[in-house]
Design brief:
Elements (H helix, E strand, L loop, with lengths): L10 E6 L7 H9 L6 E6 L24 H10 L9 E6 L8
Parallel strand pairs: 1-2
Antiparallel strand pairs: 2-3
């Protein structure tokens, strides 16, 4: 996979505690390619929303429309994580400035 280092769109990566594919390390590696973008890595555990499991693809299941979807929808509309959202900020980065010679 090739990433364009000029990509400068803001990014919200949502990691799930019980996702064996999207681990914090894996998402960290992915996000590290986007040096021109401001990004946030938000991490949610199942217990944050009172369930036993979420899993890799289940974020998009309609059983989470009231607990998880508002976080993504608000961020897509405003670029902000709504107060009281389940989970926590794991890491974040601001765009790196290009070196002037």
């Amino acid at each position: 996979m090739k990433f364009d280092p000029r990509t400068n769109a803001p990014i919200l990566a949502i990691g799930l505690d019980d996702d064996s594919h999207g681990t914090p390390a894996a998402l960290g590696r992915l996000l590290s390619y986007f040096t021109a973008s401001a990004w946030r890595h938000w991490h949610i555990a199942p217990e944050d929303i009172g369930v036993e499991a979420i899993g890799h693809f289940a974020f998009f299941h309609d059983r989470f429309k009231d607990s998880l979807w508002p976080l993504a929808l608000t961020w897509l509309r405003s670029g902000e994580i709504p107060a009281g959202s389940p989970g926590r900020l794991l890491t974040q980065a601001t765009p790196m400035k290009e070196h002037q010679c």
